[in-house]
Amino acid sequence: MFTPPLPSDGGAPTDWKSHIAIFWEAWRYVHQDFYKTPLDDDVLVNGTISGMLEALGDPHTTFVDAKRAEIIRTEMQGSFEGIGATISMREGRLVIVSTIKGSPAERAGLRPDDIILQVDDRVIQNMDITEAVMLIRGPKGTQVKLRILRGNQEPFTVTITRDTIRIPFVETKMIEGTNIAYLRLNEFGAPAPNEVVTALRELLAKNPRGLILDLRNNPGGYLPVSIDIASQFLRANQTVLIVKDKKGNAETHRAKSGGVATNIPLVVLIDKGSASASEIVAAALKDHQRATLIGVKTFGKGSVQHVYTLSDKSQLNVTIARFFSPNGNEIEGVGVTPHIEVEMTEDDIAAKRDPQLDAAVKFLQK
After folding, report:
1. Is there a catalytic annotation at residue 276?
2. Which residue would you say has higher pLDDT here, 31 or 78?
3. Which of 301, 303, 314, 325 is catalytic?
4. Which pLDDT score, from 0 to 100, does residue 24 have?
5. Which of 144, 258, 308, 313 is deepest in the core (most CB within 10 A)?
6. pLDDT digits over 176-222, tens only?
7. Is 272 one of the catalytic residues?
8. pTM of this prediction?
9. Identified catalytic residue from 163, 228, 271, 287
10. CATH at residue 231
11. SS3 letters for the chain?
12. Domain check: are 215 and 87 in the same one?
């Protein structure tokens, strides 16, 4: 079959730079010769954008199609359907960062640092993170099989029934037998600041001698929310974080006025599931000597993404900067180190012990 030659520019629009012409050559040959028809141009365009971003080598610069983008927006408002696990792609492998308390993922025994090798019949390797999320999520009542690698153990399979996941942004209590207040923040979603303020006021009305802020297994969320949360514990205008763009320009973000818990003795619990916005808050409270950090080193995500909503409601997440602690400490790939290191072992988890929380209570009772 005779294939007519393409124009020398591949058919690219005249206002495109010359090095884009190769794309138009490929596009036209695919449409001309590919044996499966019809072709879905929307799928091809989305794949093109995803491939372009993947070539950047940054796991946090991603393209999210319109359907998946709507799911993400819904989640950050407080609910979604799935198994209730936050995941990340590390060196081509899908890793669990944290599970939501009471979720199917937690009930199935999934843990931070578990590697998901396979979702149903799909092997996971070097996959776009949003594609992996979509494989795991699904309608309430449906099941998904995950092949898990944990440490040096043999891989094992768990079958999980999906459910509606309602993110309890805040959980509070008074530690039994003590006069110590406890506040757990599960994610930095849009409702979190108001919920935290309300919870703090209720706890402080009980005149506790100290407060434990639990950021363990908190994967983060919106950067502005992290500033709002940190502002509840810091004095007005204290630095919360420093953002540096690709040109080295630095922007300092400061605590807002009106914090409701700026004086009470404070312990922050952190672990390897504490990421992003959790690390912003923990690092700020550490640098200002406002709190004692107890647990283990955090995840180490110190990059800032700008979220663009495209014309079809798809979403482009572009890493535009890195953030640093008030003292200028690197967080990306490094994490935040606690003042007092306390491990949580597998035996502790199996026995439902919490040595990290116990250490925080003991510290505040001194």
Report:
1. yes
2. 31
3. 301
4. 84
5. 144
6. 999 999 999 988 988 899 999 999 999 999 999 999 999 999 989 88
7. no
8. 0.71
9. 287
10. 3.90.226.10
11. CCCCCCCCCCCCCCCCCHHHHHHHHHHHHHHHHCCCCCCCHHHHHHHHHHHHHHCCCCCCCEEECHHHHHHHHHHHCCEEEECCEEEEEECCEEEEEEECCCCHHHHCCCCCCCEEEEECCEECCCCCHHHHHHHHCCCCCCEEEEEEECCCCCCEEEEEECEEEECCCEEEEECCCCCEEEEEECCECCCHHHHHHHHHHHHHCCCCCEEEEECCCCCCECHHHHHHHHHCCCCCCCEEEEEEECCCCEEEEECCCCCCCCCCCEEEEECCCCCCHHHHHHHHHHHCCCCEEEECCCCCCCEEEEEEECCCCCEEEEEEEEEECCCCCECCCCCCCCCEECCCCHHHHHCCCCHHHHHHHHHHCC
12. no
Domain end point (choices 115, 143, 166)? 166
Answer yes or no: 366 catalytic: no
Query: What tokens appear for 255 in the block?
Result: 């605590």
Catalytic residue among 88, 98, 274, 276: 276
Q: Which comes out higher in pLDDT, residue 69 or 360?
A: 360
Domain count, the chain: 2
Measuring CA to CA, which residue among 175, 158, 80 is closest to residue 114? 158
Token duo for residue 165: 């996941």
